[in-house]
Amino acid sequence: MPSSDAPRIFSGIGSTYEKAGALLSFGQDPRWRARLVSSLAAAPDDVVLDVATGTGLVARALRERYHCRVVGLDRSADMLSAAADHNGHMPLVRGRAERLPFPDRSFDHLTFTYLLRYVDNPAAVMRELARVVRPGGRIAALDFGVPPNPLLRALWRLYTRMGLPLIGRAISQRWASVGAFLSGSIEGFNAAHTQEDIERCWRAAGLSGVHVERMSFGAGVVMTAVKDGATEGPRGRGPWARSEAAEGSPPDGGWGYRRVERVSVAPSGTQPSVAPAANRTAFYALRPGGVRDYWTLLHPPYTVWHLSYVLLGAALAPMPDPRIVAGALLAFFLAVGVAAHSFDELRGRPLGTRIPSGVLIALGSLGLLGAIAIGLIAAATVGLWFLFLVATGAALVVLYAFEVPLVHSDFGFALAWGGFPVIATAAAAGAPAIPTVAAAIGASLLSLAQRRLSTPVRRIRRKAVEVRGEVRYADGSTDALDASRLIAGPEAALRLLWIAILAISIGALLGRWSGG
């Protein structure tokens, strides 16, 4: 693909790039990036340039792992804007890999991801990348590959040509275009530039010790090499090794900033001070850190609430099969309890957990895949028509993850997490249609009531800076309003409702199994 086409293809997807990359690769992209980061072996006082930084996934991981300084560079303003939202004070530069706006030997190490397929002359770009790395510094890269095994290559080709565009379309129209483009681009580039060709480009750029690691049966390729020559002078001697606010710095830093656009990064905000009762992000949330975060992530009361609808749907059938009930419970736990909640936490950390983004992506991807796998097994038992419900459930999780209003609204939430579990389970268990529809409407209304109770409480707990006021009665008496009072009533109802709905659903199912 001509390099001029890259901004057009990938514009407008910065805000969804990280989630979509994990979904489209079935969780492999985060795994590949983690391997790339681990191969660099940077020191805390090193300065690393991350080229084609995108939303800053690799740059962020480098800082977290090595506590080194990282500079991110990308040609897409949309991607850099998303990177600025996630990477605090990390320097971000808008520029092209073909002409880096930095002097020779400015960085201790350099990384890049999925870059060479989008440039016109890979060999020239490798020389330019090596130019800004000090002798003895390491370059590490990640790119797509093609599985060498004929059977795996056929399955890979089926997915890239059909699965990528279809899943992309479920995310958005822009991702449909990206999926369609990638389906031909990956194989086309690897056909025109063999792995041996790429390795020759690296060596011709003055790199030695080239190491190639194929991952996921060859679908991902991580490469590392060291720049020839002995290490000279202090490490990280380029302008980025000192404070950008150093006195006496020339207006353009000596790095040709007149040719690139700097992206300003707003300081990361501080958490507002709110009333003590509102310090926790939810009534079931534990103190952040460690295994407690995973309890909080699962939203235990709400997850159990929605799993109760699975029991209710099964209870509508004349003779519900225990295997169908168990499979449905596990599938909806993985889809809602694990996948939907992991993807939701990935966007803005509403629960305030400290779970790494890569773990959240992996949990979400594996949860969704597990739910789909259970659905496919069920379809083999109850009939191929059930595949429609499996696809619908997967689409609901994806749409919820990307906060598509169709699902992320109050009514969308009620239908997706209330009515759909009843319908899917009742259909698999063989329940009659009219009772199923009636129960699904009831479950949707209950979930809508849950949403109407929990939304104002969430706003106070997570967003309120100050709560003050009073209620004045006809007899002249008053009650002070604070966060605790506003939260207490709705949450008391929520604490009772999830237990009540669980008890009703269990009772209905046990009554059916007991021969009722």
Number of helices: 18
Structural class: alpha/beta
* Broad CATH class of the largest domain: Mainly Alpha
What are the secondary-structure elements, in order, as H or E?
A: HHHEHEHEEHEHHHEEEHHHHHHHHEEH
- Which stretches of 5+ consecutive residues score pLDDT under 50? 231-278
How far apart lie the N and C ends?
66 Å
**Portion in helices:** 40-55%
The general outline is: globular
- The CATH superfamily of the largest domain is UbiA prenyltransferase
**Beta fraction:** 5-15%
Q: What value does the average pLDDT take?
A: 84
Radius of gyration: 27 Å
Number of strands: 10
The biggest sheet amounts to: 8 strands, mixed
What's the helix and strand layout?
Elements lengths: L5 H5 L6 H8 L3 H11 L8 E5 L5 H10 L2 E6 L2 H10 L5 E3 L12 E7 L8 H10 L1 E12 L5 H22 L1 H20 L2 H10 L2 E9 L4 E8 L33 E3 L28 H6 L2 H16 L6 H25 L10 H26 L3 H16 L3 H4 L1 H20 L3 H31 L6 E3 L5 E3 L2 H31 L3
Parallel strand pairs: 1-2, 1-4, 2-3, 4-5
Antiparallel strand pairs: 3-8, 5-7, 6-7, 9-10
Helix pairs in contact: 3-4, 6-9, 7-8, 11-12, 11-16, 11-17, 11-18, 12-13, 12-14, 12-16, 13-14, 14-16, 16-17, 17-18
